[in-house]
Design goal:
Layout (H helix, E strand, L loop, with lengths): L8 H18 L10 H8 L3 H13 L3 E4 L3 E4 L4 H25 L2 H20 L2 H18 L3 H18 L6 H19 L3 H13 L2 H8 L5
Antiparallel strand pairs: 1-2
Helix pairs in contact: 1-3, 1-7, 4-6, 4-7, 4-9, 5-6, 5-8, 8-9
């Protein structure tokens, strides 16, 4: 249940912004799509005033574009911004990997392994939503295991903009297979605590999504 009633008024727009940010980040509201204000206000159990205040917050973060007299839509990314963001996110994941292999606890690794096997089941069922959710969870778990608060903060900020594209781009059969092969290798390198090899693989793995994102969403279109 998403209703946000009962939250103090002065905090409401920030809470609404958090919920909207999560919906955009997960891809529940797709890149380039208009924001359904009436539907969201009803879903959250609020008036449109705090919703519009939250929209302004997300617009300043670059997650939403304000459309004159037409509400807002989830922002697209220009080709140049996409290339730069992919490069930086790949670099952050690579840095996180080298730290994570030395800090990863047995329960951390067990959780990643469980998500990996669940992701394989989603792949077998061709359940794209579940596949992408678990894929994202694995990447985020590796970053979190780095223990580097500054890195995690930067990664979260950038991935909030990139992930709706990164995890919603359509996959051809070869792309599905390649992603699974990469993740099999990622798990093996984590288990063997091979930080340098894992860093190299993650950087290439993230870079490999740029072309699919551009083809799927036509980034840079008006």
């Amino acid at each position: 249940m998403d209703t946000l009633t009962g939250i103090p008024r002065r905090y409401l727009h920030d809470t609404v912004a958090d919920h909207l940010r999560a919906l955009i980040r997960s891809g529940d509201i797709a890149p380039g799509s208009r924001l359904p204000e009436v539907e969201l206000a009803e879903r959250f159990g609020i008036s449109r005033t705090p919703l519009r205040e939250a929209i302004k917050i997300l617009a300043t973060e670059g997650l939403l574009e304000l459309l004159p007299n037409r509400g807002a839509r989830v922002a697209l990314i220009s080709p140049r911004d996409l290339a730069e963001m992919v490069e930086v996110v790949g670099g952050l994941e690579a840095m996180a990997a080298e730290a994570a292999v030395t800090r990863l606890t047995a329960p951390d690794l067990d959780a990643i392994r469980a998500d990996h096997h669940a992701m394989l089941a989603a792949y077998a069922a061709r359940d794209a939503g579940q596949f992408f959710r678990l894929n994202r969870a694995i990447h985020e778990a590796i970053v979190a295991a780095s223990g580097n608060a500054t890195l995690i903060r930067l990664y979260t900020s950038l991935s909030t903009r990139l992930n709706p594209f990164r995890y919603r781009a359509a996959l051809a059969e070869a792309d599905w297979r390649h992603a699974v092969e990469d993740h099999n290798a990622i798990l093996s390198l984590l288990e063997h605590r091979n930080g340098p090899a894992l860093a190299t693989l993650l950087r290439a793995h993230v870079r490999g999504k740029a072309e699919a994102i551009a083809a799927e969403f036509g980034v840079g279109a008006s």
